[in-house]
Every structure is written in C-alpha cells, then in structure tokens.
Amino acid sequence: MAETTRRAVMLGAGGAGLGALLTACASYGQPAGDTAAAPATSGSGEAQPAESESAAPKSKKKPAGDELAGTADIPEGGGKVFANQKVVVTQPTAGEFKCFTAVCTHQGCTVASVSNGTINCPCHGSKFNIADGSVANGPAAKPLAEKKITVEGDSISLA
C-alpha cells in the first residue's frame, strides 16, 4: 500500500478548493441555483440583464446636501457631533450655525461632545471654540477645519 504524503494531501485539498472558487466565480451575478442561465438577448443580439436578476441593495454614501439636522436640534451656545459624517455643528449665537471637522487635530480622535462653549476631544483633553474651531485647550495646536453647510428654513445640510 502506497503511503500518502502530507504534500499529496495538501495538493489535493488545494485543488478541490480552487475548483470550488472557480465555480463560484463563474456563477457570480447569476441568480442562486441558476449557474447555467444564459443572458437574455435583445433583437439586436446584445446581451440584456435577465428580468429575474436582482442586484443586492447598494449602500449609498450620503451625498452632499442631505440634511444633517434641524436647527432646533442644535442648542444655542452648544452643538452636536455627527460621528458618521465626521462633523460637528455648533450654534455660537442664536441663529448662527457653524460646522467643523470632528477629527481632532492632535492625534485624529473623533471629538465626542460640545459643552460650555467648546468642542471636546475625549482622547487627550483638547478643546476647541464653537465659534471658530480655534484651540481653547491643548494639546492640539491647530484649529478644527471649517466645513460648509447650508441652512434653509429649519434644515441644516452639508454643502
């Protein structure tokens, strides 16, 4: 009886895995269980997507101009951090809205809160002024970059 070597076992397993990968790649984009379906053709002979094909929902990044908040959501003398968009919106005085990056200029942490007239980073204690993003307390040495927003009616959106 021939002795099976470790190399032979590994090569056999690798070949089986490669075959499965090639089969999966060949059927990519086909409806489940329909790996042999040919694309539909129009009268001109050009391939058309089959009606039964449905692509998975595509995740959409919020395009610029989508509403961040209502003006009532931003307290006067304070603000709100939007971690997903990496911005912070403030209202230094009644009806004046500002927007800054929420990424601290010290070491790149996301700021976490707005209170007592400052935007506050939890990592090392940096604080930034809500009116202009300037450093109120280090260790950060650079201000937060201002971002453009539009305020229409009671809606605040990234510009």
From TrEMBL:
Q: What protein am I looking at?
A: Cytochrome bc1 complex Rieske iron-sulfur subunit
What highest taxon heads this organism's lineage? Bacteria
InterPro entries in alphabetical order: Rieske_2Fe-2S, Rieske_2Fe-2S_sf, Rieske_Fe-S_prot, Rieske_Fe-S_prot_C, TAT_signal
Protein's job? Iron-sulfur subunit of the cytochrome bc1 complex, an essential component of the respiratory electron transport chain required for ATP synthesis. The bc1 complex catalyzes the oxidation of menaquinol and the reduction of cytochrome c in the respiratory chain. The bc1 complex operates through a Q-cycle mechanism that couples electron transfer to generation of the proton gradient that drives ATP synthesis.
Pfam families recorded: Rieske (PF00355)
Q: Which organism is it from?
A: Nonomuraea mangrovi
Q: Does the keyword Signal apply?
A: no
User: Region labeled Disordered — which residues?
Assistant: 32-78
Keyword vocabulary terms for this entry: 2Fe-2S, Disulfide bond, Iron, Iron-sulfur, Metal-binding
Note the CDD domains from the entry.
Rieske
Using the record's annotation, list all stretches that form the Rieske domain.
Answer: 66-158
Please name the PROSITE patterns in this protein's record. PROKAR_LIPOPROTEIN (PS51257), RIESKE (PS51296), TAT (PS51318)
This protein's cofactor list reads:
[2Fe-2S] cluster
- Which lineage do the record's taxonomy fields give for this organism? Bacteria, Bacillati, Actinomycetota, Actinomycetes, Streptosporangiales
Where composition is biased (Low complexity), the residues are 42-57
